[in-house]
Amino acid sequence: TPVRTWVEVEKKSILHNYRVFRKLITKKTRLMGVVKSNAYGHNLLEYAAELEKIGIDALGVDSIVEGLAIRKRNVKIPILVLGYTLPELFADARSNDIAVTISTFESLALAAKSGTGKKPLRIHLKMDTGMHRQGFQPYEMDKLIVALSGNKQLVVEGVYTHFAEAKSPRSGGSTREQIARFEKMMKQL
């Protein structure tokens, strides 16, 4: 059966969009290209390689499997797994220089125990500021600080949240509340 629909992505359009975003952020702000779920159906490997070529600072993927596929393509820039990583795959993340998201105390404890002593696991902490899908809660900050203290097997590279309604102009109040919660959590950390 012949294909009835397809998508064509022009490399010059990717570059144009990249330049637009670069102009919107400060020079010290890093820009991550999110290529999760096969680059939203646009070919993970080709898209990741193109973004590295034009100067993107990092890539966001859904799973360690996607991160490993990109590394096999010889892409060297930082990669962050935005989805859940099975604890048995922490070693693959560590050995392939792929950072993982940690959003629960259970995952944090398993990540802390997964080390070999040679190379720490790079992690990003996900905070739940109102999406209510996953992440550490505002009331858990003291417990999180204790859990992270003195652990040499983990390097906290970043912290992030997921806005529930940021794309809806009518919900600006909700997004501002989430920003305020996130800023308070960052001060505690």
Describe the protein's architecture and organization:
This protein has 189 residues and is α/β, with parallel strands linked by helices. The protein is built from 8 helices and 6 strands; from the N terminus they run H-E-H-H-E-H-E-H-E-H-E-H-E-H. It has a 6-stranded parallel β-sheet with strand order 1-2-3-4-5-6. Helix 7 links the parallel strand 5 (121-127) and strand 6. The chain is globular. It starts with 10 loop residues before the first helix and ends with a helix.
Compile the SSE list and pairings.
Layout: H1 11-24, E1 32-34, H2 36-41, H3 44-54, E2 58-61, H4 64-72, E3 79-81, H5 90-95, E4 98-102, H6 105-113, E5 121-127, H7 141-148, E6 154-161, H8 172-188
Parallel strand pairs: 1-2, 2-3, 3-4, 4-5, 5-6
Give the structure's gist in a few sentences.
42% of the residues lie in helices and 16% in strands. The protein has helices spanning 11-24, 36-41, 44-54, 64-72, 90-95, 105-113, 141-148, 172-188, and strands at residues 32-34, 58-61, 79-81, 98-102, 121-127, 154-161. It has a 6-stranded parallel β-sheet with strand order 1-2-3-4-5-6.
Overall average pLDDT: 92
Distance linking N and C termini: 56 Å
How many distinct beta strands? 6
Number of helices: 8
Rg value: 18 Å
Helix residue percentage: 40-55%
Q: Regarding quaternary structure, how should these chains be classified?
A: single chain
Strand percentage: 15-25%
The description of the largest β-sheet is: 6 strands, parallel
Q: What ranges have pLDDT less than 50 throughout 5 or more consecutive residues?
A: none
- Read across the widest sheet, the strand sequence of neighbours is 1-2-3-4-5-6
Looking at the structure, what is the overall shape?
Answer: globular
Estimated structural class: alpha/beta
Question: What string, H for helix and E for strand, traces the elements in order?
Answer: HEHHEHEHEHEHEH
